[in-house]
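[audit] Reproducing an earlier prediction to check determinism. Same input, same settings, fresh worker. If the tokens differ from the archived copy the diff job will pick it up downstream; this log only records the rerun itself.
[audit] input (410 residues):
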Amino acid sequence: MSNIRAALELALGILPEEDLNVLTNTVVTSTRKANSIICREGALEHVFYIIQDGKVAFTKKMDTGEQFLGLKGKGEFFGELGVLDRAPRAATVHAISDCKLIEIHEDTLDTILTRNPSVARAIMRGITRSMRDTDQITIAELQLKNEELAKTLDNLRAAQAELLRRERLKRDLEIAAQVHKSVLPTTFPNVPNFEFAALARPAREIGGDLYDVIPVDDENVGIVMADASGKSVQAAIYMAIVRALFLSQAQANLSTTEIAHSVHELLMKVSTAEMFVTVFYANLNHETRQMKYVRGGHDRPIYYHAATGQIHLLDIPGRFLGLLPGLIVEEDSLTFETGDVLVCYSDGATDAVRPGDNEMYGLEQLQAIVAKNGRRSAQELADIIVNDIDKFRDGEDQPDDLTLLVTKAI
């Protein structure tokens, strides 16, 4: 049993004890002999696999024959797209050595995804790695073809076409960066009894995070923090759609759960199967200082109590929006007292890595810096958090978009 727990955490990261117990008690283990087929392309299955031991290869049928896509080994996983999208297997998986596998049914995976956004991030990283490996194979094949055609006129034409494509891509990236920049507010509305501060620093030219403070009526504002899957042009366009949907739904005098469900249903209609968004959305009455909120799979916001100097996480359950049918979110509420602070953040804050030992900044360190500096102004606190993360990274590349939204009762 301990071997199963170790394999789960190696693949999915450190999980809460409750989630580990759920997985450990529901997964099925199996062994596959070398040279056997684990999954066939086109088959419809409902299982997500983690490799406990051994190595597997992926192939796909092409016009020219069977195409090799890549290898995976101990601590890695596969089958996630078929389970999340409920689509046929996109490739055939071969055991190239004797393999020990952990099998997780889609219902169990769905439960864990709802409770723990870190698992969703681990799976998205696995998808990204698979896509990157496939891209590298494709790039290598194209390079070989270009070498073979180097002395032909077609090679010149291809080079000219590639130059034009790169120019168009460069322009598309510039437009997408402008789109994302325009999505983020440059100023916040003047809200009695509250002040706000924010920072957004994309990991690449184009980010996929969103924050906003939305005027609703004379007494209420909406607070939104969101993180779209993926990066680049598609994420920027997708996040522009998300912001437009929240702006329109916030004006309809709906509850936070109704707004989340409405945005989710609209995203299901307009977005692709590869895209989803994690969200924290709140309705803040600045007269009564009461805030009602939902959390759709987003990182848990940190709440600082000025009177006691204590902090706690807004840990209400909920699942990300725009990907799976049957959204699950719950509403909770709290009342601000003077000096209380709410810190919303994206995973670029907690996932920052220190060079040398690759230790992550982590949620505990973020909580500690908020507790230590909670009495500062909203802007001062935001600056202190970012400076502390940058000091921790010590020049290491930023792993993901770093976004903060600080709300302080005054």
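[audit] rerun output stored. Observation attached for the diff report: The mean pLDDT is 85.
[audit] end
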